[in-house]
Specification:
Distance between the termini of chain A: 53 Å
Structural class of chain B: alpha+beta
Structural class of chain A: alpha+beta
Number of helices of chain B: 3
Strand content of chain B: 15-25%
Distance between the termini of chain B: 13 Å
Number of domains of chain A: 2
Order of helices and strands of chain A: HEEHEEEEHEEHEEEEHEEHEEHHHEH
Largest sheet of chain A: 8 strands, mixed
Largest sheet of chain B: 3 strands, antiparallel
Oligomer: heterodimer
């Protein structure tokens, strides 16, 4: 019985992708991916291997990666990201189609899922308690997230903390983890069980590759978790690993700045963010060694006193 | 005074305060003095001297020239942030 993306043969997946599309259950969302770009099929199936196929006809986001060419440079193959048949971004070089799928899917979520308060943060979970890792580019958020996931934490999201308005819990949207530049080889070095998609060079973020989310995280995507820690990572070369307390007011201000729709939600977003922060311990993690950072997170999960 | 249409939501976190201006959607992180000044502006308009006197009563502060100057500076910052309007020269 075919229930998951990985149950399909490569040929069947490619035919579906090029035809009516592939509907995949990704946490609370069902994107429908379509594309006639044959080279996209294998890496997309690899990264979404463990995800359930949606059998109903309805999808939240109708995503189509359309091959095109530059009118000024007809020899340059490009790709358009279309949502509900509308062009969303200027066309990208076609060899960056896979990262474009992920960036475009991000756009679909943060541009539409306003039922949630959406904070730009990686989220991992253990024993029902979630750690939010908000971070600006370069802070090491995705690398740390990949390391934690490989270290036994459940991946809830590499990109979004989805806060439910009814109860303040976080919904999971465990998607491929986007890695950039040096992070790719660091994560590849975690071990042979790490599955990475192909490298896309020369994107506007440099070289990009994606880590396939663990099957267990995908299988548990329906389990919400309670926010317990907010850790602002700050990768600093050569720095000693340390965890410094951050005031809740500062955390509130920084999370508001890191939210995609906090301003859009007005007073409801404000109150929801207050609820999240009241239930969390807030720290800033400065680190250069992943093993030491992982040990600190283990201490967090054990309830040990870790404040610097 | 508060600009027309500005409504504030407050959260006191220990000795720091976070305020949402629902009109602009902007969130501001304030120290305790700035929060007290904004709170007085929200209660009613007044000059820096008026605000200093009112704060002096409510917070047991000396409303001296130093405090008045500091409040005037905070009010100027609030004006730039759209949290206060000047009521007089």
């Amino acid at each position: 019985m075919i229930t998951k993306v990985g149950d399909l043969s490569a040929g069947d997946f490619a035919r579906r992708l090029a035809g009516d599309g592939v509907r995949i259950v990704v946490g609370p969302f069902i994107p429908r991916f379509r594309s006639r770009i044959g080279a996209l099929a294998a890496p997309l199936q690899l990264l979404y291997d463990a995800f359930p196929l949606a059998d109903e006809a309805i999808a939240d986001f109708h995503i189509n990666l359309v091959p095109t060419r530059s009118p000024r440079r007809p020899t340059s193959p490009l790709v358009e990201f279309r949502l509900d048949d509308q062009l969303v971004f200027i066309p990208f070089p076609r060899d960056t189609a896979l990262p474009l799928v992920e960036w475009g899917f991000n756009f679909c979520i943060f541009g539409n899922a306003h039922y949630y308060l959406i904070i730009h943060a990686a989220v991992v979970e253990r024993d029902g308690q979630a750690v939010l890792l908000p971070g600006l580019p370069g802070a090491g958020k995705s690398t740390l997230c990949a390391a934690l996931v490989h270290h036994g934490w459940r991946l809830m999201s590499d990109e979004f903390a989805l806060v439910r308005p009814a109860d303040g819990l976080l919904d999971a949207v465990p998607r491929p983890i986007s890695l950039k530049n040096e992070s790719i080889d660091i994560v590849r070095g975690f071990g042979p069980d790490v599955v990475l998609g192909p490298r896309s060079k020369n994107t506007f973020k440099g070289e990009v590759a994606h880590m396939r989310p663990p099957a267990d995280s995908v299988a548990r995507a329906g389990e919400p978790s309670r926010p317990a820690w907010i850790i602002f990572p700050a990768f600093t070369k050569g720095a000693e690993t340390r965890l410094d307390p951050v005031s809740r007011a500062r955390a509130h201000f920084e999370l508001a700045s890191n939210s995609f729709n906090y301003r859009f939600l007005g007073g409801d977003g404000f109150r929801l963010l207050v609820d999240v922060i009241e239930g969390c311990a807030c720290h800033r993690l400065t680190y250069s060694r992943l093993d030491e950072a992982l040990a600190l997170f283990d201490d967090l999960a054990r309830g040990a006193s870790v404040a610097a | 005074m508060l600009p027309d249409g500005v409504n504030l939501l407050w959260k006191y976190w220990s000795d720091e305060v976070v305020v949402l201006n629902t009109a602009s959607g902007q969130t501001h992180l304030l120290d305790s003095l700035s929060a007290a000044v904004l709170g007085e502006i929200e209660r009613g308009p007044g000059s820096a001297r008026d605000l200093a006197e009112r704060l002096g009563h409510s917070h047991e502060l000396d409303s001296d020239a130093t405090l008045i100057a500091r409040i005037a500076q905070v009010c100027a910052e609030f004006e730039g942030l759209g949290l206060a309007d000047r009521t007089g020269p």
